[in-house]
Amino acid sequence: MSQLKTNFIIAGLLVFFAATLKVITFPLSFNPIIAIAFFSGAVIKDRKFSFAMPLLAMFVSDVMLEVLNIAPGFYGMGQIGNYLSLLLVTVLGFGMQKPSVWNIGFFSVMSSLLFFVLSNTSCFLFDYSGFYGTGIQGWSNCLAAGIPFVRNGIFTDLFFSTVLFGSYHLVSIAKSRKSIAN
Questions:
Q1: Nearest-CA neighbor of 24 among 82, 75, 65, 73?
Q2: What's the sign of the alpha-carbon dihedral 52, 92, 147, 122?
Q3: Euclidean distance between CA atoms 51 and 40, whole angstroms
Q4: How much is the CA Rg of the chain, to the nearest whole Å?
Q5: Which of 48, 63, 86, 143 is the most exposed place for a label (fewest CB within 10 A)?
Q6: By CB neighbour count within 10 A (0-12 exposed, 13-18 middle, 19+ buried), where does 116 fall?
Q7: Are the CB atoms for 86 and 54 separated by under 8 Å?
């Protein structure tokens, strides 16, 4: 099997796993989608592919939420902010020059915070009901309402970033040992 085909199979499984975990853990949001966006930006050389992975994971999970009638998978304009936030988290991953424990931890937390601020800002901007209020106070209220989610998100993203980068590192070591042995 070619390396490209293997990579697509692994990516497809990872997307399906992320989407399924998001659906299973809804509304707790214990899922690797933000970590996948960060990992994709940091590791995957093909930029189109690095953007596609988290977007596909989010889209598949939204379809599953909708089809299984667990929650609205597609809930309006504010959702576009979530997709754009994933793209920007992927771009943030481009900035990590060398994977190290410190860099992975730092960029993972920054990914969580970036997603939190952008997705909550999107929620506020498209809040046509005025639930949070208006102006800076309304935006502050919207951000404050998301604090419990960002706390959970930071730990979730750190966990899944560790799993993704750790697995990638172990596979890289195994590949280099195999090539040395040959």
A1: 65
A2: negative
A3: 7
A4: 17
A5: 48
A6: buried
A7: yes
Assess contact for 65 and 26: CB atoms under 8 A.
yes
**Residue 182, pLDDT score:** 66
Where do the domains of the chain lie, and which CATH numbers do they carry? Answer: 3-181 (1.10.1760)
**H helices within the chain, ranges in order?**
3-24, 33-43, 47-67, 78-94, 101-125, 135-145, 147-181
Q: Which among 56, 41, 34 has a CA at the least distance from the CA of 154? A: 34
The C-alpha atoms of residue 17 and residue 164 are separated, in whole angstroms, by: 13
Measured between alpha carbons, how far apart are the two ends of the chain, in Å? 18
Query: How many CB atoms sit inside 10 A of residue 34's CB?
Result: 30
Contacts with 104 (C-beta within 8 Å, 6 or more apart), sequence order: 96, 161, 162, 165
pLDDT in tens, 10-64: 888 889 999 999 999 998 889 999 999 999 999 998 999 999 999 999 999 999 9
- d(CA 33, CA 55) in angstroms, rounded, equals 9
Local confidence band at 180 (pLDDT 50, 70, 90 cut-offs): confident
* CB neighbourhood size of 155 (10 A): 12
